[in-house]
Each structure stands twice: as C-alpha cells, then as structure tokens.
Write the structure tokens for this entry.
Amino acid sequence: MVYDLLSEEERKSLDLILGDLRLLIGKDRISVSEIGDLLQKLKSEEAKHYIENLSIGSQPEPALRDSFLARNSPLAKYLFRELSPEVKITYDEARGFIDYEIRDKNTGRTIRLELKALFEAKFETGKTRAAEGAKTSTPKPRHAL
C-alpha cells in the first residue's frame, strides 16, 4: 500500500491535510469574516496556504495545485506516487495542456488529471478590491480526456 511507503512525518502531514480537506469540502462558502477563525481550525500548512492565497485573489486552480500537490507533497505521493505537471497533449493541439499526467511505471498506463477549484473567491467591485468571501465552485461539464 502506498501509505506504507510514506515516512512517519509524511503520514502525519497527510493525516492533517486529509482532515483539513474534509473540513473545507463540508463548507458551501467561506465569508471574509470567518477566514481568521477557519485558519485557526486548519491544522496543515497546505490548507492554510490555500485559503490565504484565495483570500488575496489567487486563481483557484493554481492555488489548489500549488498548495496541495506541488513541492513533492505527501498528498501527491499518497494519491499518485509521481506526477508530471502541465503535460502537452500532442495529438490534439487545440486542447493544449492537462494539469497532470500520472504514469504507472509497472503497467505503463497513464491517467490524465484536470483539476477543478474547491472554492472561487468573490470580490466587491468599487475603488478598492476587497474579498467578500469564497464559495464552492460548480464545475462545468467537459469532455473526457
């Protein structure tokens, strides 16, 4: 099992990340007034980083990717072992890049992974740009890769 291949430190970190993701997925929206309290409840640096980035206006998908899957994260190791980011789909030039390609070294099979944001930030309009909060994103249907 992949979990057994993680170091003790990576397992502890993974458990914190998964707990935080459960908390975040259980929310329909996060208002600006509750971000401070939410950051206090979150236990993993990855989840805190994600919410902080959304609150300052980062794009939702890169914030998710950079916070949870980049930098050889325990979550990426647990789910996929090894990821190749931003892979060009050569047979279909119009489609461009996919977020990740996961290759099983033993079977040679590949999985193409396209991320969708958990939350999208909503900002007030006017002289200053202030975050109102974030709400769960509604993925748009796409054709299978």
